[in-house]
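Issue 218. Parser rejects a valid record. Input:
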Amino acid sequence: MTETPAARNYSEQQAGSLTTGSQILLPDGERTAEISQVELESDDFGAPALVLASLSGGGTLRIAVGTAVTVVGGEADGVTQLPLQAGPVEVAGPAGEARREQPGEEAAAAPAAPAVVVPPLPPVPPAATGPGEEELALIPAPKGTPESVVEAAAEAHPEAEGVLLLADRLAKGVNFKSGSCLKDLSDLAHELFVTLKDADSSLAVADLLNVLPYDGNPGRWASVEASLALSSYICRQNGQEERAEVYEKLIRTPENQETDPFKARMAAKVRQRSLNEPNLYDKEIFRSIDNSNHDAEREWRLLRLESLLFLRAHGGSETIGPGELERRINNELESVRA
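Output the parser choked on:
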């Protein structure tokens, strides 16, 4: 018994969300085929533009990302799926042309053009795994209230103007819903370690931020992210490898949020590109050096240091490995501490 479109349950979805194993209705509206591989092509601006869907029976469909594609949702009782070879199929030819294979056509008489081979792409990138309860226990609880932790750090450095200014603002009350308050805490942790080389006080302040959950707000999360990256680096330097790994898992928390397969793939590509091409503020630093503006140079170098620490917490990237990162971080620390 042959299958007709009316004999199956169909639904429509955008081509950009197709995955390996999807059963789709072919352009002729009569036959179906299973997708064996999916690849995405981007336009010149880096946005996804074209889906290359390799079919299990051979051939590749080129579909615009936003095109609505009919997907088979299930088989009706007593219906047998029509084989892909039961009718002519468009396949890519060697010169970009298409030919139609007829049923029963002998391979020796007219060999089929080779199908375009597309490397497989997993439907969803592996999700980052958050730390468990035992791992989170490696982060010590604060000694007292957040305000008392800040006060203790300030008392340890009574002549450090940068620390005192930040501590005075935070002494009015630490509000974890305030983006500016989170920024002050992160800046204080960096000031304690980068300028004063006080790793213990820096970690104590940073841990006030490190345990905060990701709330989807990029502005607030940026301060937590910077704090986690700094804490990871300090612990690696002190030989606290397991504790450093906890911070590194926490910094990947946003990677667990996206559940849509297509959006997750796109987010992973954008994330990897940002790691491969980080903003290290080279132009701004060179301009400050040319203008003999040492204060501005230091501020830009502090931002560069944050970028490098973020990369270090991710284990480096495809363009900058861990060894090179260590060298660059040491250079920046020496520059801003001079």
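Fixed in the parser; the record now loads. The first helix runs from residue 133 to 136.
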